[in-house]
Each structure stands twice: as C-alpha cells, then as structure tokens.
Specification:
This protein is mostly beta strands. The protein has one domain (4-238): Jelly Rolls. Helix content is 13%, strand content 43%. It contains three helices and 15 strands. It has helices at 4-15, 80-88, 92-101; strands at 30-32, 47-50, 53-58, 61-67, 107-109, 118-129, 135-142, 148-154, 159-166, 169-177, 186-194, 197-202, 205-211, 219-223, 229-238. Strands 1, 3, 4, 6, 11, 12, 13 and 15 form an eight-stranded antiparallel beta sheet that branches. A hairpin with a 2-residue loop joins strand 12 (197-202) and strand 13. The longest helix is centred in the N-terminal third of the chain and has 12 residues, at 4-15.
Amino acid sequence: MSTRKERAAAVFAAVGLVALALPGLAAGPIRIDFTGETIGAEPKSFVPVVGTWRIEEDSGKKVLTVDGRQWKEGQASGGIADKARALYGERYAEFLDRVQAYAYYPYAVAPKIDNFSGGEISVRFEGLSGRIDQGAGILFNLKPNGDYLTVRANCLEDNVVLWKFEKGKRSAVKWVRNTPTPTRQWHELKVRINGAKVEGYLDGKLYLEHTLAQPVSGRIGLWSKADSHMYFTDYTVAATTD
C-alpha cells in the first residue's frame, strides 16, 4: 500500500509540477497547451480541486471542460488530499480542510506557478450550457487556507464580477453589468494585476477596475459555478512589462 508521500509524489509527476514564481516569466509568457493531454481524462496541466474537469475536443483542438451538468455542491474532486499535498506540501492540511468544508464552486489550479503577484492572466472560454449559470472565471490570490479572488464573466447574466471567497463565504467586491457575452461563442477574459490594483477585461474591453486592501500574491487557476458547462483554452500568464 502506498504512503501519502508516495501518492503526493505521483500527483506531482502526473501534473508535471514545477514551482515557478512570477520572475520566472520574464523570458516570456507561459501558455498552457492541452495538445499533450488525453481526451476524456482529468487534465495534467491543471489540478482540479472542486468539480468535474476533463479534456475534450472541439473542432479538432483539445480544450479543458468544466462539466456542471451533474453538479453536486460540496463535492471536492477525486484524490483531493493528494492534490492538496502536491500544491502546498506539508502545509496542505489547512487547504484540504477548507476545500472539503466549503466545496461550493468548481475550480482548478495551475500547478506550475506557485506565486503570482503581478502581470496578466488571460483565457478564452465558450459557454455550452447551464440553466443556473454559465460562469467562466480567472482565479487568483489563492492562499494555503483556501481563500481566493476571481474575476468572472457569465453568459447568462452578461456581467463581470470580482468575487472574494474568504473563510468559506463568497461576497461581491465589484460588479459590472451590461457586458455582452453570448452563449455558444468564444470570448476572451483577462485580468491585469499591479500590486493591489485589479483590472478585468472582456473581449479586449476594460470593464472592471478595483483597488484591493492588500497586494495580490498566491496561486492562480480557473473558476466556474454550479451547473456551468464551459470550454476553456489558451490560458496565458505574462509578467508585468510596465
């Protein structure tokens, strides 16, 4: 029978986990490519924490899917203990406890970047279905205790929101309405971080601006909600150039 450390090591190997702080991006942006992934399997380039995430094919191109059609609130992804240890090492227990207690929103973590504190994160997404939500979000400022921030767009609501998840509770920090986001069309969501300043862009247009109480620092990833069935591709992280 394998030990916890052996299982965590296997998760490290499966996701190709290499810790990269933001200065490592100075040579150029990191673009997460799904070409080497297996269709129908969990992604290796992201670590699913909550919800159902897998690789699918769209028009001959591999994409990452979050599938909330059978969403059950409070259900963490499979093997979450080993994934938590892979992400946070010996500090994994607090993160694991928080995830298991408050698994309310699907999200997946980009394991190759252990501390994003400034620059740009962008992703392309398409809403496929969802009667309650069709949410696509960029997760950032993820802490070892499970707290995080996310800027998300919603194909059903046509809005962009900066959400805060803290101590098991979600609250809106900044809400912007009238942001056209038709279902069954590809869109680009981008977050620009400069210290404590957050900017949110949808399809190249700046919609959201907010200054946080503290500078951003933590892991990053993707976020969704409830019964959202979404495609994601072209997840790119770049260092600040100004």
